[in-house]
Amino acid sequence: MKLILTILLSLTFSICNSQNEKPNREPFNLDLAVNATQNYAMEVGKTPYLVKEKILQIYPGETVLLETEVKGDSIYSMKAVERNLHPEKTIEVEFYQDAKDRTKISMFLNVKNPFERTLRHDALM
């Protein structure tokens, strides 16, 4: 009986955790201000957030939660998740455009680091 209960609890835990994973973004229309009069638009399909191991692709207007596994002083693995169930090991990445004043269009990347150490990363736009 204890064995069956243990197996059921383990399966329940595994199912609940796997339901939090969000490997792919939902399709959406991206519309960005380019200058005072022009916009750039494209349809973004259902594509993965992590395009390679530890390489995130994020579009303006998106916020992605990356739950990490750390070994020593390095991130060993990460996965995109729906909800921040483990704030002590989840990096929040937000990328957005400020085009309120179309003569001063800016792009911002906010990275919330949950670790007590400096988080080093490279970003390309």
Largest sheet: 4 strands, antiparallel
Strand tally is 8
* Oligomer designation: single chain
Approximate helicity band: 10-25%
Give the class from helix and strand content and strand pairing. mainly beta
Task: Describe what this molecule looks like in 3D.
This protein is mainly β and 125 residues long. The protein has one domain. The chain is 14% helix and 41% strand. It has 1 helix and 8 strands; from the N terminus they run αββββββββ. A 4-stranded antiparallel beta sheet has the order 6-5-7-8, with no helix packed on it. The chain has a two-stranded antiparallel ribbon with strand order 1-2. The chain is globular, with a radius of gyration of 19 Å. It starts with a helix and ends in a 13-residue tail after the last strand. Residues 1-18 form the signal peptide. Keywords: Signal.
SSE blueprint and pairings:
Layout: H1 2-19, E1 28-33, E2 39-44, E3 50-52, E4 55-56, E5 62-71, E6 74-81, E7 90-98, E8 106-112
Antiparallel strand pairs: 1-2, 3-4, 5-6, 5-7, 7-8
Task: Summarize the entry for a quick read.
This protein has 1 helix and 8 strands. With 125 residues, the protein is mainly beta.
Q: Which terms summarize this structure?
A:
125 residues, mainly beta, two-stranded antiparallel ribbon, 1 helix
